[in-house]
């Protein structure tokens, strides 16, 4: 994804030295050691040659990819844990509400259980639900008559 290019140092006035990496400076040859006469009248360069500065130039696609990767990293670091934290807080709130409802129901059931242990409540339930009577009492069953007079028959004695 990244493209490497080499740039030759130029004498342009728009060259900004802060664009170059802060690496060790390349040695420049001294004039006496750099050029010598080989006897035939030609100048021969001797000594270390300056190396061109290599810079990594990122294209638009690479910049977009790096920015996207940085954004995803930030989401994993901040957004997702925050969403998880908020969701857990909501879940804790719902669970706390459910616990309060269950406590209220337990109190009602505890009072009902205590009441069912009394003789008075046992007698009331036996009479209402099972039509039971205490020894020595007589039970009567009242049957309702139809309220419409046309449904009833009357007989007269002769």
What does this structure look like?
The termini are far apart. This protein is mainly alpha-helical and 158 residues long. 46% of the residues lie in helices and 10% in strands. A two-stranded antiparallel sheet has the order 1-4. A two-stranded antiparallel sheet has the order 2-3. The chain has three helices and four strands, in the order E-H-E-E-E-H-H.
The neighbouring-strand order within the major sheet is 1-4
- Percentage of β-strand residues: 5-15%
What is the mean pLDDT?
A: 77
N-to-C terminal Cα separation, in Å?
121 Å
What's the assembly state of these chains? single chain
Sheet with the most strands?
Answer: 2 strands, antiparallel
Shape: rod-shaped
Low-pLDDT residue spans:
6-16
Secondary-structure element pattern, one letter each:
EHEEEHH
The share of residues in helices is 40-55%
Q: What structural class do you assign from the helix and strand content?
A: mainly alpha
Rg to the nearest angstrom?
51 Å
How many H/I helical runs? Answer: 3
For the secondary structure, the number of strands is: 4
Keywords, separated by commas or semicolons:
158 residues; mainly alpha; two-stranded antiparallel sheet; 3 helices
Q: What secondary-structure arrangement, pairings included, does this model have?
A:
Blueprint (H helix, E strand, L loop, with lengths): L2 E5 L23 H4 E3 L5 E3 L7 E5 L2 H57 L2 H12 L28
Antiparallel strand pairs: 1-4, 2-3
How is this structure best summarized?
This protein has about 160 residues and is mainly alpha-helical. It has helices at about 30-35, 60-115, 120-130, and strands at about 5, 35, 45, 55.
């Amino acid at each position: 994804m990244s493209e490497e290019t080499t740039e030759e140092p130029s004498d342009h006035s728009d060259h900004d030295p802060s664009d170059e990496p802060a690496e060790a400076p390349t040695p420049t040859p001294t004039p006496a050691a750099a050029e010598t006469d080989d006897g035939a009248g030609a100048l021969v360069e001797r000594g270390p040659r300056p190396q061109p500065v290599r810079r990594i130039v990122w294209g638009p696609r690479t910049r977009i990819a790096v920015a996207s990767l940085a954004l995803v990293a930030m989401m994993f670091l901040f957004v997702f844990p925050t969403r998880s934290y908020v969701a857990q807080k909501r879940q804790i709130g719902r669970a706390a509400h459910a616990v309060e409802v269950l406590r209220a129901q337990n109190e009602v059931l505890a009072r009902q259980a205590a009441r069912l242990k009394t003789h008075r409540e046992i007698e009331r339930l036996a009479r209402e639900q099972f039509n039971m009577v205490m020894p020595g009492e007589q039970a009567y069953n009242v049957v309702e008559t139809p309220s419409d007079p046309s449904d009833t028959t009357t007989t007269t004695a002769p």
